[in-house]
């Protein structure tokens, strides 16, 4: 029986994009279903009753939730090509450590782009640049975090890149100036079709950001 794969997703989501990139890297065909997060589908509520969040990967009727767990599941099920996690247990632990760092730091400290002003905004922006520099130093001189090719950590982080334009505009900053090696890595990743066809258009992300700000009454 052919695999039936459905992805419940939301276009600008850095979490949903992780599943899209991983499925593309593995060459898995799937049905994409865009969720209206203001009016969630019954399928989403039933598939992720705990968090009621996207992304959810439904593989032959069985839901898998949480983007990092989805990534690992995809890597284990479609293990015939393009491994994402390293085979060495220590390297795997390191990849998981940095993936955890990414969400704890970037996402949890990301409020400054929404409603922070003045000093608070400056502190948020400074924190963001520091996190990016830290990640840039972890990349070092490797072409990818995974080594010679895209790996787990590359997928975990690259889905923030469609948001960089929004961060840059809000913070009046240049990522290229702050973290040139990291931006060179972003470009290398976007050159891969599995990445570029899966990530959101940065202009659409910015439009989404502006529309959401307006809806929330933030100026
Ligand atoms: C986060 C998913 C998430 O925040 C993961 O998959 O890694 N830790 C999870 N999903 C958001 C959309 S993206 O900001 C979501 O579904 N929000 C709807 C809600 O919370 O009601």
**Sheet with most strands: strand arrangement:** 2-1-3-4
From the alpha carbons, calculate the radius of gyration and give it in angstroms.
17 Å
What share of residues are in beta strands? 5-15%
CATH architecture of the largest domain: Up-down Bundle
Binned, the helix content reads 40-55%
How many individual β-strands? 4
Number of domains: 2
Which class do the helix and strand fractions yield?
alpha+beta
State the end-to-end CA separation: 52 Å
Based on Cα principal axes, name the global outline: globular
- For the report, how would you describe the main beta sheet? 4 strands, mixed
Q: Residue ranges: pLDDT <50 for 5 or more in a row?
A: none
- Quick check: average pLDDT? 95
H/E element sequence? EHEHEEHHHHHHHHH
How many helices? The count is 11
CATH class category of the largest domain: Mainly Alpha
Bound molecules: S-Hydroxy-Glutathione
Any idea of the CATH topology of the largest domain? Glutathione S-transferase Yfyf (Class Pi), Chain A, domain 2
What report would you give on this structure?
The chain is α+β, with helices and mostly antiparallel strands. The protein has helices spanning 14-26, 42-47, 67-77, 89-107, 118-139, 152-158, 164-171, 175-178, 180-190, 193-196, 202-215; strands spanning 5-9, 31-34, 56-59, 62-65. The protein has two domains: 5-77, 3-Layer(aba) Sandwich (Glutaredoxin); 89-216, Glutathione S-transferase Yfyf (Class Pi), Chain A, domain 2 (Up-down Bundle), CATH 1.20.1050.10. It contains eleven helices and four strands; from the N terminus they run E-H-E-H-E-E-H-H-H-H-H-H-H-H-H. Strands 2-1-3-4 form a four-stranded mixed beta sheet, covered by helices on one side. Helix 1 (14-26) links the parallel strand 1 (5-9) and strand 2 (31-34). Helix 1 runs parallel beside helix 3 (67-77) and helix 4 packs parallel to helix 6. The structure holds S-Hydroxy-Glutathione.
